[in-house]
Specification:
With about 270 residues, the protein is α+β, with helices and mostly antiparallel strands. It has helices spanning about 40-45, 140-160, 165-170, 185-190, 200-205; strands at about 5, 5-10, 20, 25-30, 55-60, 65, 70-75, 80, 85, 90-95, 100-105, 110, 115-120, 125, 135-140, 165, 205-210, 215, 230-235, 235-245, 245-250, 255-260, 265. It folds into two domains: about 5-195, Peptidoglycan recognition protein-like (Lysozyme-like, 3-Layer(aba) Sandwich), CATH 3.40.80; about 200-265, Roll (SH3 type barrels), CATH 2.30.30. The chain binds zinc ion (ZN).
Length: about 270
């Protein structure tokens, strides 16, 4: 897959009027269309009335259509936040995949919100990362997943991509796409493994020293993260194995998250 002048060569380009301004993308946001077909989703995303778009749409046969150049802001994320940043359209490339989304069981079949029936072979029962129960999700096709992986690989080669995220992760509560039928964790583990606390990354990890008397040690990067041990005391040596929005993932005897500004980083 080749990118020239912020467009994929050899894929159809149908410009959406729903775009604005220039961006320097460092994030990829994965979506499902919750639609009936790639064609109908492309029509919707090119309709000025909808005020919605994405950079590309991937059909169920793996075919890609581009709607907005990658250096121009498309309107796919809406109200969204990741780390300290809000309005993720300003930083990201949006990839829509043709998929009906959540399904309801109805007798032998499964029904989408727009009333189409799907056979059990097209459905996955799974728990969404933002939910505490299982429900039914339309499967993505292998061709579609392969195309998504190849496209992300090409984007990483062309742009300074640091994150691959689901819409559900930047707009939790409001959005559920791409949902548990899409292998999002595998995608970023495979393509962005240096960010994922791999052994290699840990080898090269920076070290630091706790610079306050008591530093809360949490299971997630944010003050809503649960405290997982008593606070770390001043002078405790830590390994810094990850970063996110001002928080450091550190390793002492166990791993957890602390406020980055209370760690003095040791020079290597
Ligand atoms: Zn979405």
């Amino acid at each position: 897959m080749k990118i020239e002048n912020h467009k994929l060569s050899d894929v159809p380009y149908e410009e959406s009027p729903n775009h604005s301004g220039e961006i320097k993308p460092d994030t990829i946001i994965m979506h499902y269309t919750a639609g009936a077909s790639a064609e109908s989703s492309i029509r919707t995303l090119c309709d000025p009335e909808t005020k919605a778009s994405a950079h590309v749409v991937i059909g169920r046969d793996g075919s890609i259509t581009q709607l907005v150049p990658f250096n121009i802001k498309a309107w796919h994320a809406g109200r969204s936040q990741y780390g300290n940043r809000r309005g993720m359209n300003n930083y990201s490339i949006g990839i829509e995949m043709d998929n009906a989304g959540m399904l309801e069981k109805s007798g032998e079949n499964f029904v989408s919100w727009f009333g189409r029936k799907y056979a059990a072979s097209e459905v996955k029962k799974a728990q969404h990362r933002n939910e505490a129960f299982e429900r039914y999700w339309h499967l993505f096709t292998e061709e579609q997943i392969d195309a998504a992986f190849e496209l992300c690989k090409a984007l990483i080669a062309e742009y300074n991509i640091e994150h691959i995220l689901g819409h559900e992760e930047i707009s939790p509560g409001r959005k559920t796409d791409p949902g548990p039928a899409f292998p999002l964790d595998k995608l970023r583990e495979r393509l962005l493994e240096q960010d994922r606390g791999s052994d290699e990354a840990e080898e090269q990890a920076a070290t630091g020293t706790v610079a306050v008397d008591r530093l809360n040690f949490r299971d997630a990067p944010g003050t809503e993260g649960e405290k997982i041990s008593k606070p770390l005391s001043r002078g405790t040596k830590v390994k810094i194995i990850g970063k996110e929005g001002g928080w450091f993932r550190v390793k002492v005897e166990q791993e957890g998250w602390v406020m980055g500004r209370y760690i003095d980083k040791n020079l290597k």
